UniProtKB/TrEMBL annotation:
Entry's family note: Belongs to the calycin superfamily. Fatty-acid binding protein (FABP) family.
Nucleus among keywords: yes
Organism per entry: Fregetta grallaria
Keywords for the protein's UniProt record, in alphabetical order: Nucleus
Cited PANTHER family: FATTY ACID BINDING PROTEIN (PTHR11955)
Protein name in UniProt: RET5 protein
Subunit structure comment from the entry: Monomer.
């Protein structure tokens, strides 16, 4: 049975965000700004339904979805694109596949103790973020 990810997580660290954003064709000014942000995550996980809020001082991004059900994700706040997105479990990892203009786009969330790990991919780039559970 997959873990329940419900909780509030504070930003700890990130690696390779600038290259990840460059692969998404984000302009240099916005890349620099995003690299300075320290996002928090709030996850509400109820059965096969999840809400993942990424919270920053600039703006919040909310994903509200049912596991295993493809939906159109509007990534306008991120890079102006739309994707056909499916989120499902692979063992203890929550895996998102985002089909659209960019290849190999998606992410993985998993827990190690009280830390939430996130690997975001696009093309050949991987951005790694770590968050600490606070409640």
């Amino acid at each position: 049975m997959p873990p329940n990810l419900t909780g509030y997580y504070r930003f700890v660290s990130q690696e390779n965000m600038d290259n990840y954003l460059r692969a998404l064709d984000i302009n240099v000014v916005l890349r620099k700004l995003v690299c300075l942000l320290k996002p928090d995550k709030e996850i509400i996980h109820t059965g096969d339904h999840m809400v993942i809020r990424t919270i920053t001082s600039l703006r919040d991004y909310v994903m509200d979805f049912d596991l295993g059900v493809q939906f159109e994700e509007d990534l306008g706040p991120v890079d102006g694109r739309k994707c056909q997105t499916t989120v499902s479990w692979e063992g203890d990892q929550l895996v998102c596949e985002q089909l659209g203009e960019k290849s190999n786009r998606g992410w993985r969330h998993w827990l190690e103790g009280d830390q939430l790990h996130l690997h975001m991919t696009v093309e050949d780039e991987v951005c790694v973020q770590v968050f600490q559970k606070v409640k």
